[in-house]
Each structure stands twice: as structure tokens, then as C-alpha cells.
Write the C-alpha cells for this entry.
Amino acid sequence: MRALLIDPSAPRGLRLGEAAEPTPAANQAVVEVKAISLNYGEVAGLQGGQAGEVNGWDAAGVVVEAAANGTGPAVGSRVVTFDWGRGWAQLRAVDTGQLAVVPDGVDLGEASALPVAAGTALQALRRLGSILGRRVLITGASGGVGRFAVQLAAKSGAHVIASVGSVGRGDGLRELGADEVVVGVDGVEAPLHGVLDNVGGPNLARAFGLLAEGGVIQSIGATSAEPTVFEPYATVGAHRRLESFRLDGKIADDLAYLAGLLDTGALDPQVGWRGGWESYEDAIEALLSRKVAGKAVLDVA
């Protein structure tokens, strides 16, 4: 089968080539992949990968072999899938606890945008507790996770403050449900009930200082690539929390919920770049250079 293979010698750390077809475990379905979506975190680290491996977290397609243990959907089902690898290929073997059926009215390319970005936004917001009527800050709000988080937080009744890196990066966020769109966090007023931080660096320390008693930051990413330095005693005083976040990979129920939102129009996938997987270099360049608002999707031939 054809796949995007890690190649540290290639300009973007990838090449299209041939890979062995997957051999599924009893709890895995085999999916013919129709579309994949790229995430900043997976493409930023490709040069350090092992040559010949198939990377890729998000993929959507059609089941061509059902799981031998009887779990999961039948052959012919349209599904969206997640795993920490092996998604950028024509065939993917995936645990049935990491996939969900996609409604017929939902485009598979748009569904492929869901697993890491929308799944992270959903699970991180849950860790803030009830946000109804409360002020929530989302940093890096113009990216894939951020745009889903703005929508889901607004649906949950929060007052959503969307922080972006520049004025232009804030385009469209009010239409998604943001009550405020700000550059950085310097203009944000306390108190905040919760923060979803995708950026790290100095903004993370500033956001921590804006938390209300009992407030919490979910540390999702560090796209600024800058260290976070707290002034002396900045972490002493009122009870506030900074928590590390990692996506729970047993995501089938969450994927089904998110795909249902796409089907009813209650969630916009925010696909900012789309093309054939032969154009993977262009997609990666657009993603890393911040030319994409939202998700980059590749259609698999």
C-alpha cells in the first residue's frame, strides 16, 4: 500500500512510498483511509522520527475488515479514527475503541479533522468543570484545537475570550462564539474560571495570574516554544491550579458525539487548507508557517 513515510533526509521529513499492509489484532478494524488531517504537533517533530515509519494521528475512511472479536462497526461503515500513529496510509488497523461511525451527511475529510483537535478541546473543557456563565480564556484560539474549543465552550454557556497571535488571526472567531477576541493576554481582565492554553511561554504565566480562586489552566501545548517563568511568589496565595493535559485515546464515544454535531451543523470543522496527499509538503508548510486558520486536510488517493 502507499503511505507517507518518515524520511529524515527529505525536505519536510516525509516521502510518499510503499509500506506493508497492516495485520490487525482481534480488537482492530481495518479501514480504507479516504482523508487525513494534520496537527501541528505531529508535523513539527518529523525530522526526529525513525525512517520508514508511518506516522499520523487522524484519519477517516471506510471499514474493509471488521474486528475479529465482533466489536465495532461492520464492513462498509464510514468511520473516523484516532491513534498515535499509522494514520497516513491507504489502510489503517485501529482499535474499535478509537473509532466512530460518521453520519452519511458528513464529509469524510471534515470528519478527519475531529480526533486530536476537537477531541482535545472537548476533553480539556470537561476538566474545567461547569463553565455555564463563567469566563474562559482560550489561547492559540486560531488553531485547530482553539477553533473547536471556542465553539464548544460557547455551546456550554461560557463567556469565551479568544486569544490570538495577531489581529488577522482572529478573523471569524466571533462568528464561532467568542465574546472577546484579543491579541496575547495583556488586555484580559481577571478573574478567569479556566484557561485552555495552547501556547505556553510568558502568556501562560500571565494567564495563571488572572485565575479566580479555584480556577484552573489546562496546559495543552507550547507552540510559542518559549519557556514559562513565574515571578517569585506568583504561585503562592489563592488556590489555583496548572494541570498538564493529554488526550484520552479511548475516544470512540467522544468521536461519535462530535461527528453528530457536524451532522446537525452545530459544529464547524474549520478546514483552512485541503488538497490531495501528494501536496503534503504544501500543507505542512502552510501549517507550520501559520498560514492555516484551523485544520489542514489531505484527501488520500
